[in-house]
Design a protein that fits this description.
This protein has 142 residues and is mainly alpha-helical. The protein has a domain at 24-114: Arc Repressor Mutant, subunit A (Orthogonal Bundle). Helices cover 65% and strands 11% of the residues. It is built from seven helices and two strands. It has helices at 3-6, 10-32, 39-48, 55-60, 66-78, 100-124, 126-137; strands at 82-87, 90-98. Strands 1-2 form a two-stranded antiparallel ribbon. Helix 6 (100-124) packs across helix 7. The longest helix is centred in the last third of the chain and has 25 residues, at 100-124. The chain is globular, with a radius of gyration of 18 Å. It starts with a helix and ends in a 5-residue tail after the last helix.
Length: 142
């Protein structure tokens, strides 16, 4: 057992593992790509993949401040990963979508995450992975 996790309660154990996996995912991506993308940028990209939501919608549906969301979107745009457009008949509202490069990066990152999941399954067992996924998807009443 990981001694660092041994004394943690459930919430801190989940948080620690989440941080480890996110760090691993980010490092894997950055080792395979010239385009550095942060976890927060991936989070935003996951919310807009195959969609064209408004920036306001994205801001409300990510656990990032509105100002930070706008900053990340600006960074994604400068990297050529998203397009920001005016919404038809409304000059104030902007929508966002992934560019073809953004979609390609997102899909490659999904493949890297699947590779991480496969490595975990080899280490702890496929049944454990499926059980963990099932528990995380359950209605927790919170």
């Amino acid at each position: 057992m990981d001694q660092k996790l041994d004394k943690l309660d459930l919430l801190d154990s989940i948080s620690e593992r989440h941080n480890q996996l996110r760090k691993l995912s980010e490092e894997l991506w950055n080792n395979h790509s010239d385009i550095a993308i942060s976890n927060s940028e991936w989070y935003i990209m996951s919310r807009i993949y195959k969609k064209q939501p408004t920036i306001a919608y994205v801001s409300k549906n990510v656990d990032i401040t509105r100002q930070a969301t706008h900053k990340f979107i600006k960074g994604l745009k400068s990297k050529g990963l998203v397009d920001v457009m005016n919404v038809e008949n409304n000059k104030k509202v902007k929508s966002i979508q992934l560019t073809p490069l953004g979609e390609e990066c997102y899909e490659k990152n999904e493949a890297l995450k699947a590779k991480i999941e496969k490595q975990l399954a080899e280490k702890i067992g496929e049944e454990q992975i499926e059980l963990l996924k099932s528990v995380l998807k359950m209605e927790w009443g919170i």
